[in-house]
Write a structure and sequence with these properties.
mainly alpha, 4 helices
């Protein structure tokens, strides 16, 4: 049970951070001290909203969909990070790459917690 609570909190935190920054940059036009690829804040905002309002709730309720949706989130962030590394290298800010890598690390931890919990329940 403690693992589910930790996974829920981590999911909410990483999602809320993406929503907060996404709104500030994508919709309020806050200028960052580095170049931001136009679609990236929108992507982060959308994934953040999905994380806060869908994935976090699925994890919290111990839904059977929590693990597949969490995997999909990790795959999405990983794919975008690879896209940034291979298609935008030299253009993308190191800060954007660090933010994406942080999301990946969070989701690996969340997935580990979920799989351990699932294994213990069997």
């Amino acid at each position: 049970m403690k693992r589910i609570k930790t996974a829920t909190i981590l999911s909410f935190i990483i999602g809320a951070m993406a929503v907060f920054i996404g709104i500030r940059v994508a919709f309020l036009g806050q200028k960052m001290p580095y170049y931001v690829i136009g679609w990236l804040p929108v992507y982060n905002l959308v994934l953040g909203l999905l994380t806060v309002f869908i994935t976090t709730i699925l994890i919290w309720k111990k839904s059977r969909l929590a693990l597949p949706v969490s995997i999909a989130t990790l795959v999405s962030h990983s794919a975008v990070t690879l896209l940034l590394l291979f298609s935008y290298l030299g253009t993308v800010s190191v800060f954007s790459l660090i933010a994406m890598l942080t999301r990946i690390i969070f989701w690996i931890i969340i997935l580990r917690l979920l799989t351990i919990q699932k294994r213990e329940e069997k």
